[in-house]
């Protein structure tokens, strides 16, 4: 905010005068400043509360209108400001959807190049994309955008939704926000819309992934919106279909963008090898994307307290009871994988995996209250960072039952993971820790021990080379798999932290045949099984003297 703007704000704060607010709004209309306009709106709310004068609301409304072309959050509120509160899309959902909206703002402003958005069905993600697209079309009508989904039915519906918002002045205030953004061309057959002037590549093109993309559309300096590129569970369970979908994305969709194009991925994360998953893996692990700015946001149906994240105002959302009932239905059908994908945003690879979620044992996070654990220990698969994960389950052992009460699953370097492991050991009163030793991690255990001793805590830490048995890692995990299924008890989905969810995803995506990008979590579980049930311990018996 420049000095003039600051002086105007100080004057309004001093006098709370409507004429001063008028001066401020006039100034910021010519010299847009987000912070200044936000402060004026706050002062209008205070004035309305203190005086009950409708004039303050009119000034508040004008301030929102001035901000709307530049701020997505203000645009979405102003677009429906004349509708009844319970009939609006955004306002009842704003508190939950605001993190998505803020990231979409960053995407439009070029702060990030790519964004992944995941949340349960019917909570508003596609409508959010619809509002976002109309805002882009009004703000940057000269840049072409592309909307793509798996089905022409969906792309047609999106096209019609765009036209409804832009042209229905009785419901939406689009023309107030962008008075010069006139529709100059529409084509329902080709599903294209041009704003302000006819262009070779229209302001918006809506196309199915399996429709005509090459040569028909472009998105230079615009945004490519990918909304549900996988049709459903049947396609998600067919590996060939997933590979085919990615081939279409990589060969036909992504090339529609150029250097200034930004990308938005929306939809259910059905599999770790769905298009969004493959793309995220590339951005995360390929060195050519080391400085590439992107963001992924997932809001699951149930939070860490097993409560709904989507209880919107006016009853338009979904309460905790609804989601628990949906989960119970999936449990009855022995299909918790689909629950995790559709409602928790946790994708799994189904084909060829060693661990099926439906075969595992679970508990609700409450340890047995009537007995004390025989011991509490940790098994650590260490890492120095660089893409590999430091993985460690915290095990509460009750006889043959091994409760996985907490985990570490972190790809950071040792300056983060060693203190995290030490904190886990202290918080859980761990008595023993088994750390896998390699040529590069032999000092890892010593670093943890130093941190623990600094806190006055003694933990029995032992190390051993994992390949001492001569078996490959995949063979060791496969050999331990029956004991992991039969003796390890994991937190139920809904009673896990995000780190715990990532740990379980890594376990469920492990395949014995084929390439595993990361297998650190299942490897740490087999280490825990080996530590809990050592098979090479000599048995000692008492007998009579032979002499």
Explain the overall architecture.
With 547 residues, the protein is an alpha/beta fold. The chain folds into 3 domains: 3-67, no CATH class; 89-315, Rossmann fold, CATH 3.40.50; 352-532, Nucleotidyltransferase, domain 5 (2-Layer Sandwich). The protein contains 19 helices and 15 strands. The strands form 2 sheets. An 8-stranded mixed β-sheet has the order 3-4-5-2-6-7-1-8, with helices on both faces. Strand 3 (183-187) and strand 4 form a beta hairpin. The chain is globular and about 80 Å long. Residues 536-547 have low confidence and may be disordered.
The main pleated sheet reads as: 8 strands, mixed
Can you tell me the residue ranges where pLDDT is under 50 for at least 5 consecutive residues? Answer: 536-547
The strand order across the widest sheet is 3-4-5-2-6-7-1-8
Bin the helical content.
40-55%
Annotated CATH topology of the largest domain: Rossmann fold
Count of spatially separate domains: 3
Strand content: 15-25%
Shape: globular
Q: Give the CATH architecture of the largest domain.
A: 3-Layer(aba) Sandwich
Number of strands: 15
Give the termini separation.
98 Å
Oligomer: single chain
* Individual helix count: 19
> According to CATH, what is the class of the largest domain?
Alpha Beta
Class per helix and strand makeup: alpha/beta
Over all CA atoms, what is the radius of gyration? 28 Å
Mean pLDDT: 88
Features:
single chain; 547 residues; alpha/beta; Rossmann fold; Nucleotidyltransferase, domain 5; 3 domains; 7-stranded mixed β-sheet; 19 helices; 15 strands; disordered C terminus
């Amino acid at each position: 905010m420049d000095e003039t703007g600051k002086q105007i704000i100080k004057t309004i704060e001093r006098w709370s005068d409507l004429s001063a607010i008028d001066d401020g709004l006039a100034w910021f209309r010519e010299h847009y400043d987000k912070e200044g306009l936000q402060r004026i709106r706050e002062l209008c709310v205070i004035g309305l509360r203190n005086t009950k004068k409708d004039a303050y609301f009119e000034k508040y409304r004008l301030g929102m209108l001035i901000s709307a072309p530049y701020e997505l959050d203000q645009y979405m509120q102003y677009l429906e400001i004349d509708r009844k509160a319970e009939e609006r899309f955004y306002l009842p959902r704003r508190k939950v959807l605001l993190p998505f909206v803020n990231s979409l703002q960053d995407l439009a402003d070029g702060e990030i190049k790519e964004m992944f958005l995941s949340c349960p069905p019917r909570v508003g993600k596609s409508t959010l994309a619809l509002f976002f697209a109309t805002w882009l079309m009004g703000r940057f009508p000269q840049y072409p955008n592309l909307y793509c989904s798996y089905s022409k039915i969906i792309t047609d519906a999106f096209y019609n939704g765009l036209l409804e918002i832009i042209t229905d002045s009785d419901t939406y205030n689009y023309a107030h926000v962008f008075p010069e953004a006139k529709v100059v061309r529409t084509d329902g057959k080709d599903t294209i819309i041009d704003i302000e002037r006819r262009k070779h590549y229209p302001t918006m093109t809506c196309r199915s992934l399996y429709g005509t993309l090459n040569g028909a559309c472009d998105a230079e300096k615009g945004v490519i919106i990918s909304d549900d590129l996988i049709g459903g569970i049947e396609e998600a369970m067919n590996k060939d279909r997933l590979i085919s979908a990615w081939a279409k994305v990589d060969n036909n969709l992504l090339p529609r963008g150029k250097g200034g194009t930004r990308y938005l991925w929306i939809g259910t994360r059905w599999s770790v090898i769905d298009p969004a998953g493959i793309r995220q893996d590339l951005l995360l692990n390929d060195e050519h994307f080391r400085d590439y700015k992107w963001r992924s946001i997932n809001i699951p149906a149930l939070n860490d307290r097993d409560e709904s994240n989507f209880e919107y105002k006016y009853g338009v959302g979904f309460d905790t009871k609804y989601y628990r009932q949906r989960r119970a239905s999936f449990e009855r059908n022995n299909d918790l994988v689909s629950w995790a994908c559709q409602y928790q945003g946790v994708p799994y690879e189904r084909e060829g995996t060693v661990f099926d979620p439906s075969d595992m044992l679970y508990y609700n996070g409450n340890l047995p209250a009537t007995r004390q654990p025989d011991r509490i220990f940790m098994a650590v698969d260490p890492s120095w960072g660089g893409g590999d994960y430091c993985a460690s389950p915290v095990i509460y052992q009750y006889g043959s039952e091994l409760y996985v009460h907490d985990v570490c699953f972190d790809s950071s370097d040792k300056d983060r993971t060693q203190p995290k492991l030490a904190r886990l050991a202290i918080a859980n009163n761990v008595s023993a820790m088994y750390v896998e030793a390699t040529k590069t991690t032999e000092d890892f255990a010593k670093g943890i021990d130093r941190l623990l001793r600094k806190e006055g805590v003694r933990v029995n830490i032992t190390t051993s080379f994992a390949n001492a048995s001569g078996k490959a890692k995949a063979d060791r995990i496969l050999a331990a798999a029956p004991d992991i299924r039969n003796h390890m008890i994991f937190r139920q989905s809904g009673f896990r932290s995000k780190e715990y969810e990532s740990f379980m995803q890594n376990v469920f995506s492990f395949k014995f045949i084929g390439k595993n990008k990361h297998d650190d979590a299942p490897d740490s579980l087999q280490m825990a099984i080996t530590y809990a049930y050592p098979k090479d311990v000599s048995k000692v018996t008492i007998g009579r003297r032979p002499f």
